Amino acid sequence: MRMTEGYLLDTCAMIWATQLAPMSKDVTVLLNAKPHDRRQLNISAMSAWEIGMLVAKGRLATTKNALIWFADFAKEADVAVLDVTPELLVTSSFLPAPIHNDPTDRIIIATAREHDLTIITRDRAILAYGAAGHVKTLVC
């Protein structure tokens, strides 16, 4: 596992965690550690928008309101929610090339870079961006 001050779960990692989907050994150990034994876990407020869109499109099966789903995840997983600021939005527009085309993923990448976090993801484009040295990543 890479040494970092913290981690940023992308939206898919949040969903996989709630569905108890198999994850890498490093991520499983990290998520199952007691809060005082693990490094800080974070999620982006932008993931709330993605969850809302997935629920609205019927791509995330839940009986909960999307905002309640997001809030429950944050509380139960004991993660911090990082704000999406105007500065972060502008920064996401000027990331080093070649960069992911998905605006939400660009914001998540910019968030990780701004806070020196490692993104926990399976997204191939984010992982490739990490392999290019532009952001720290950990395959989940």
CATH level-1 class? Alpha Beta
Whole-angstrom Rg = 14 Å
Shape field: globular
CATH architecture: 3-Layer(aba) Sandwich
Instruction: Give the helix/strand class.
Output: alpha/beta
Summed over residues and divided by their number, the pLDDT gives a mean of: 90
Please estimate the helix content. 40-55%
Unreliable stretches covering 5 or more consecutive residues: none
Structurally, how many domains make up the residues? 1
Relevant CATH superfamily: 5'-nuclease
The N- to C-terminal Cα distance equals: 11 Å
Strand arrangement within the widest β-sheet reads 3-2-1-4-5
- The CATH topology is given as Rossmann fold
User: How many DSSP E strands?
Assistant: 5
Order of helices and strands: EHHEHHEHHEHE
| Biggest beta sheet attributes | 5 strands, parallel
| Count of separate DSSP helical elements | 7
Walk me through what this model shows.
The mean pLDDT is 90. The protein has helices at 11-18, 25-32, 46-56, 66-77, 86-92, 103-115, 124-131, and strands at 6-9, 40-44, 80-82, 118-121, 136-139. The longest helix is centred in the last third of the chain and has 13 residues, at 103-115. It is built from 7 helices and 5 strands; from the N terminus they run βααβααβααβαβ. A 5-stranded parallel beta sheet has the order 3-2-1-4-5. The protein has 140 residues and is α/β, with parallel strands linked by helices. Helix 3 packs across helix 4 (66-77) and helix 5 packs across helix 6 (103-115). The protein has one domain: 5'-nuclease (Rossmann fold), CATH 3.40.50.
